[in-house]
Amino acid sequence: MIEILLFAVIGLCVGSFLNVVIIRVPKGESIAFPSSHCLSCNTPLKWYHNIPLFSWLILQGKCSFCGTKISIQYPIVELTTMAIFVVAILKSETLFGACISATLFTMLLALSVIDLKYKAVPDSISLPALIVSLFMHDFLYSLNGALLLAGGFTLLRMFVSWIIKKEAMGEADIIIAAIIGATLGVELGLSAIYIAALISLPAFLIVSKKGYELPFIPFLTLGLFITWCAQTQILKILEMIL
Ligand SMILES: [Zn+2]
């Protein structure tokens, strides 16, 4: 019980840091300097403005200096990271496993939000995430899954690009496919991609009419997370079908 509470608190703090990463990494800014400041009036924040979640609630989502609205993204990212940390400790058998999976899914959350906001996937986050994912299982098993899914995705990409006569999917999607393979192995990995495609379909239909291009990383991440959480159940379903 103490462990879960501890992971929840660490998750909130990591989520708070993640907001800084999400804002600064795509702009190529340092994540350490300058210290936190209001993005509108640039006033440096006091320590009590930096308490995850609570500061946003107490300030009622506004900068205490200039009154500019603070994006709802902050508390959402903090709460989601907290949820990731709690699920990680509940689902993992060892403390090491919990730390690895919490780190991996937190990095994927950062990539998803950056992809949604900026349509960019920084290698400075995706490649370290790939390395972390190789420790989700026995190293060789993970490496094998990563190579197979990355290879499969590359072939699929070439095929789809050839059909639609333009570049389909980004290179970043292949790195994420490798992460999925490393985390889940081939069989469950393919289920994760299938689930991602299923969830993305309605969203795709809605936004494609507006000419908005849908980023796929958030859906792949969601598919991976759902499959990872429910792997026993999904394996049972696969056994029934295959
Ligand atoms: Zn301000």
State the gist of this model.
It contains nine helices and no strands. It is mainly α. The protein has two domains: 91 residues, no CATH class; 123 residues, no CATH class.
How many structural domains? Answer: 2
Bound molecule kinds, no repeats: zinc ion
Query: How far is the first residue's CA from the last residue's CA?
Result: 39 Å
User: What's the β-strand tally?
Assistant: 0
> How big is the Rg?
19 Å
Mean pLDDT: 90
Describe the main β-sheet briefly. Answer: none
Q: Structural class from helices and strands?
A: mainly alpha
Explain what you see.
By secondary structure, the protein is mainly α. The model has no long low-confidence stretch (mean pLDDT 90). The protein has 2 domains: 1-91, no CATH class; 120-242, no CATH class. It has helices at residues 2-24, 54-58, 73-91, 95-118, 123-133, 139-164, 171-208, 217-229, 231-241. The structure holds zinc ion (ZN).
